[in-house]
Design brief:
The complex is a heterodimer of chains A (about 50) and B (about 200). By secondary structure, chain A is an all-alpha fold. Chain A contains one helix and no strands. Classes of the chains: A mainly alpha (about 50), B little secondary structure (about 200).
């Protein structure tokens, strides 16, 4: 996943968190390689990771 | 406009949308005073809100797709999480409005006042922000890919980690703007001011 795609996932996940699931989309990062990802200012609490 | 009148306009508008115009009535709220109104979750698709006063209104989760908000007063309004695809916001006053995480891709924001607006993480790709006032705006991590920012005022704007790939910044004023880790690949900076 490139940074642009990842930023979109993070943006939609933030909306998901802020709207209690009514909007946006819960992030699914299972299998994603995030070793070089820039996660500054990203809130990924509750994201799917495995 | 009192609350009962507003609820009736919204009810008729929903009917209008559900019946493809056969029933109900398209909302005409142009010039209406709706300051501080709670319109969260309201369906205002294609509604006419030109020049309406929505100062401080709560529009979270409202559907404003294709709505006409040109020249509307939205200072301090809460728009994070509103559906905004194809909305018309030219010359709108969005001073200090909260648009965090919103999808404003491809939206017409020409000449809009976005001073001190919260545009953190906002998707503004392909948006038309020419002549917009974005001074002191929070644009951290905003997606401004291919956005038209020609002659925009970005004085003291916070663009740290913003994506400005292919953006048109010709004639833009970037005095005092924070650009740490912003991606300016292929951006057009012809005549941009950076002092």
């Amino acid at each position: 996943m490139d940074q642009t795609k990842l930023n979109e996932v993070i943006r939609l996940h933030a909306l998901y968190l802020a709207s209690d699931g009514a909007e946006g989309e819960r992030a699914n990062l299972s299998g994603a390689d995030l070793r070089r990802a820039d996660l500054f200012d990203a809130d990924l609490s509750g994201a799917i990771r495995s | 406009m009192d609350l009962n009148e507003l609820n009736e306009v919204i009810r008729l508008h929903a009917l209008y949308l559900a019946s493809d115009g056969a029933e109900g009535k398209r909302a005409d709220l142009s010039g209406a005073n709706l300051s501080g109104a709670n319109l969260s979750g309201a369906n205002l698709t294609e509604a006419d809100l030109r020049g309406a006063n929505l100062t401080g209104a709560d529009l979270s989760g409202a559907d404003l797709s294709g709505a006409y908000l040109s020249g509307a007063y939205l200072s301090g309004a809460y728009l994070s999480g509103a559906y905004l695809s194809g909305v018309y916001l030219s010359d709108a006053n969005l001073r200090r409005a909260n648009l965090r995480w919103a999808d404003l891709s491809g939206v017409d924001l020409t000449g809009a006042n976005l001073r001190r607006a919260n545009l953190r993480w906002t998707d503004l790709s392909d948006a038309d922000l020419s002549d917009a006032d974005l001074s002191d705006a929070d644009l951290r991590r905003a997606n401004l890919t291919k956005a038209d920012l020609s002659d925009a005022n970005l004085t003291e704007a916070d663009l740290r980690r913003a994506n400005l790939r292919g953006a048109n910044l010709s004639g833009a004023n970037l005095s005092g703007a924070y650009l740490t880790d912003a991606d300016l690949t292929d951006a057009d900076l012809t005549g941009a001011v950076r002092s």
